[in-house]
């Protein structure tokens, strides 16, 4: 304990060689299976560092998701809710000049050099069973966003394609589907990730809130109100009557954020090994876009696994 990853470099290399490895999605980038979840090396190191060093405070609030489920949107909304008194002038709001991922620290990337944060919001793609123990023992609140796995899969395929360097051949949708169904994906298996949090929600409903992307897209206000209540920043009657809730929804809408310059042209984590164009996080934000990409057989295959894994669990999907 207390040793940095660098000091234990040799042990880490040995440890790494014991992990199952796959590069099916991204031939230039291996993924490792650690505690039942696939990570690239950058995030794997971050997960282990967070597990060793991160010290949660009871007031920390975690925004959790399996990638491509609406994380960017959830971050924007939670940030806007928590900081609404400070940034009451929406015309100069930080979300108009800073991409949502830069507004909220990411557990497996931003806590290798620090152990806590002053700001209450932290996001993560780590499945529940691998979260640093102090998050559970401190009783931190957890918000989880859920999305139809078919749309999350299609979104992931497009996202990783954008991240693939020029000259590297990217896999076909069919090959990607085969891997996804086997559980090999970004923080996959997708379904196990969802279930890990759903089990936590069943055990402690007061500690874990589930939001559903499709429900939010169709009718954002009730979910955003629920989110604000749950994280302890409820809207007053005066705020509601003054349209504050609607203003936050409009500020964070796909239509608004995807057109802001920083999200059209900026880069996320410039200089880091995983620098990403911000526009990769904003594709089209529609429900059922899978229909334009998946054959009925492909969709059926995903639905079958979803039914098998989620059936009877009572998930709000
Ligand atoms: P699509 O690829 O289907 O368009 P994540 O943020 O977890 O990486 O998920 C990305 C998905 O959320 C993408 O879906 C993206 O377009 C969509 N998205 C990003 N910002 C959004 C917003 N403000 N409102 C609704 N959807 C959003």
TrEMBL record:
Record InterPro entries: P-loop_NTPase (IPR027417), Sulfotransferase_dom (IPR000863)
Pfam families: Sulfotransfer_1
UniProt KW Transferase keyword: yes
GO MF annotations in UniProt: sulfotransferase activity
Gene3D superfamilies, alphabetized: P-loop containing nucleotide triphosphate hydrolases
Domain annotation Sulfotransferase: ranges: 58-312
SUPFAM superfamilies: P-loop containing nucleoside triphosphate hydrolases
Enzyme class: transferase
Signal peptide: none
Assigned keywords, A-Z: Transferase
Its EC number(s): 2.8.2.-
Family note: Belongs to the sulfotransferase 1 family.
This protein's name: Sulfotransferase
Classification lineage: Eukaryota, Viridiplantae, Streptophyta, Embryophyta, Tracheophyta
């Amino acid at each position: 304990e207390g040793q940095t990853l660098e000091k234990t470099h040799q042990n880490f290399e040995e440890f790494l060689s014991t992990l199952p490895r796959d590069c099916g999605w991204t031939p230039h980038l291996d993924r490792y299976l650690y505690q039942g979840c696939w990570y690239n090396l950058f995030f794997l190191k971050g997960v282990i560092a967070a597990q060793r060093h991160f010290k949660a405070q009871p007031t920390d609030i975690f925004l959790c998701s399996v990638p491509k489920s609406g994380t960017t949107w959830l971050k924007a909304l939670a940030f806007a809710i928590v900081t609404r008194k400070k940034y009451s002038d929406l015309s100069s709001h930080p979300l108009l000049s800073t991409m949502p991922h830069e507004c909220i620290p990411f557990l497996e990337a931003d806590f290798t050099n620090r152990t806590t944060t002053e700001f209450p919001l932290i996001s993560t793609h780590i499945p529940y069973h691998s979260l640093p123990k102090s998050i559970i023992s401190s009783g931190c609140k957890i918000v989880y966003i859920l999305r139809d796995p078919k749309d999350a899969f299609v979104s992931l395929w497009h996202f990783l394609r954008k991240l693939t360097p020029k000259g590297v051949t990217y896999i076909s949708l069919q090959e990607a589907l085969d891997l996804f169904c086997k559980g090999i994906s970004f923080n996959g298996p997708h379904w196990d990730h969802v279930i890990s949090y759903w089990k936590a929600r069943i055990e402690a409903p007061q500690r874990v809130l589930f939001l559903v992307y499709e429900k939010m897209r169709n009718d954002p206000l009730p979910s955003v109100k629920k989110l604000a209540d749950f994280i302890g920043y409820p809207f007053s009657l005066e705020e509601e009557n003054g349209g504050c809730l609607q203003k936050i929804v409009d500020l964070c809408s796909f239509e608004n954020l995807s057109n802001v310059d920083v999200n059209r042209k900026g880069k996320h984590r410039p200089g880091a090994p995983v620098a990403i164009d911000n526009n990769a996080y904003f594709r089209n934000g529609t429900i059922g876009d899978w229909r334009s990409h998946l054959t009925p057989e492909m969709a059926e295959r995903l639905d079958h696994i979803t039914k098998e894994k989620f059936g009877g669990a009572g998930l709000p999907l």
